[in-house]
Specification:
Blueprint: E1 12-17, E2 25-30, E3 41-47, H1 52-68, E4 72-78, H2 81-92, E5 100-103, H3 106-114, H4 122-130, H5 138-142, E6 145-146, E7 149-150, E8 153-157, E9 161-165, H6 166-172, H7 182-194, H8 208-231, H9 241-255, H10 268-276, E10 282-285, H11 289-296, E11 308-311, E12 325-328, E13 330-335, H12 341-350, H13 353-361, E14 366-367, H14 379-389, E15 393-396, H15 398-401, H16 404-418, H17 424-436
Parallel strand pairs: 3-4, 3-5, 12-15
Antiparallel strand pairs: 1-2, 2-4, 5-13, 6-7, 8-13, 8-14, 9-10, 9-11
Length: 438
């Protein structure tokens, strides 16, 4: 997701370019004259945020820190989501490695920790009787812990759910409160189509936005026990009947052709724009959807907040998963091995209760810092926070939790099953084969 900007007398920020090998656009600080001394320590902060207001808030926090630490220069650097995932492994081994970067945790972070590219933050966060580490939601800390060692600073928590256009639902006579089961959901899609309304904004170009459907269906059919067994190469793995059934339901969804025309080529930003422009009734998306759809709508305004509703992913009749099981992120900031101590100190500042409360109040995040959730004002964000608070099992995104190699296969298989190019059994076998190679 992405960002940057500021004024004298501190520093003005401008877009420039990193090495051509990385193709990265980044925000750097420049001196404004008047005898200002050059900063002694540069902290490079790599992110993928795309909402300008969020970037501006980060910049403001960074400027406050710089004002208190005049020997530090914080530079915000940006990579678009897919470029971030593709280039980060190489970047981490290069001279252009950031000092800290956005992470989803899970198997991807674990693999990065095993390469020696990351700083072990356990001692720093556990010092002073654990004052720092205890300031976060324990579930967030666990998501970044491998072998009892912590490899990222918690930033936010999130959950994926459906957001819908109330006006389009009213036009078709669909009531969100009636969508409790997967069959209810499929019937709503049929009703919307009969009313001449595109049911769902889908992002097939990036693939991962559609893997949420398969992931949730696996969770609803098999519950935590089946997924944990599959991930740990136990039992029938991803060939479990509950996983096969999830693939069958995904294929059934695809046959209804619920997405907008050209969805297989649409990236996530374009998909948000489709929803924000009122060209689809629903989108399966993140907790900050209201702000993001506005940013990517053609008019820059998108749907009015009062025209957006929200409901949880439906349950499956006979499934072992609960309606209160959630899929979503545990996002944080991973620090690279050679980062200066100031980078760690700034992260403690960035994610403290006060700064996380400010970001929560702006509708940016469901904070990981304890007590900061009272800053949430946006009703849709509050609904996500409440859902997380009541979650009986919060599962990290499958493509992140299963590691980069298996995650890519999951995303590919989702598209193949949705489009009828692969059977559910073949898809499960491909994922199982990829896992066995790990």
């Amino acid at each position: 997701m992405i960002h940057g900007n500021g004024k004298a007398p501190l520093r003005a920020r401008r877009l420039s370019a990193l090495a051509a090998a990385t193709g990265m656009a980044f925000l750097s600080s420049t001196l404004m004259g008047g005898g200002v001394a050059a900063a002694q320590t540069v902290i490079k902060w790599l992110h993928l945020e795309t909402v300008p207001a969020s970037v501006k808030m980060w910049e403001d926090i960074a400027k406050k820190y710089e004002a208190e630490h005049p020997d530090v220069d914080i530079q915000l650097q940006f990579l678009e989501n897919e470029a971030f995932k593709a280039k980060l492994p190489t970047l981490l081994q290069s001279d252009d490695a950031p000092d800290f970067f956005y992470t989803w945790g899970g198997g991807v972070l674990k693999q990065q920790s095993e390469t020696g590219a990351l700083m072990d933050l356990t001692d720093a966060m556990s010092a002073d009787e654990g004052t720092w580490v205890k300031s976060y939601n324990p579930a967030a800390v666990r998501g970044f812990t491998f072998g009892e060692r912590i490899y990222a600073v918690p930033y936010k928590m999130g959950t994926v759910s459906f957001f819908y256009n109330k006006a389009l639902f009213d036009k078709a006579g669909v009531k969100a409160e009636d969508i409790k089961t997967w069959d209810d959901f499929l019937n709503a899609i049929k009703t919307l189509k009969e009313a001449g309304i595109t049911p769902i904004a889908g992002g097939g170009g990036d693939k991962w936005p559609l893997h949420f459907y398969w992931s949730y269906l696996v969770m609803r059919n098999g519950g935590q026990e089946v997924f944990e067994a599959a991930k740990n190469k136990e039992g029938e793995g991803f060939l479990d009947p509950a996983v096969i059934k999830a693939g069958e339901q995904l294929a059934e969804l695809g046959k209804l052709e619920p997405f907008q025309g050209g969805y297989l080529g649409a990236n996530w930003q374009q998909t948000l724009g489709v929803f924000g422009d009122g060209k689809a009734a629903m989108i399966l998306s993140f907790e900050n959807t209201e702000a993001n759809q506005r940013t990517h709508a053609a008019d820059g305004m998108g749907l009015a907040p009062e025209n957006i509703g929200r409901f949880a992913f439906p349950v499956v009749n006979g499934g072992r998963g609960a309606a209160t099981d959630t899929l979503g992120g545990l996002n944080g900031w991973a620090v690279t091995k050679k980062a200066p101590p100031q980078a760690v100190d700034f992260l403690r500042y960035l994610t403290n209760q006060e700064n996380e409360r400010i970001q929560a109040a702006a509708g940016m995040i469901v904070p990981a810092a304890k007590g900061a959730e009272d800053g949430i004002k946006d009703p849709l964000m509050r609904a996500s926070a409440d859902q997380l608070a009541a979650s009986t099992w919060h599962q990290n995104y499958f493509d992140q939790d299963l590691g980069p190699a298996v995650g890519r296969v999951v995303n590919d298989v989702t598209i193949e099953i949705l489009t009828g190019q692969m059977s559910p059994e073949e898809g499960s076998q491909m994922i199982q084969d990829a896992l066995e190679l790990e």
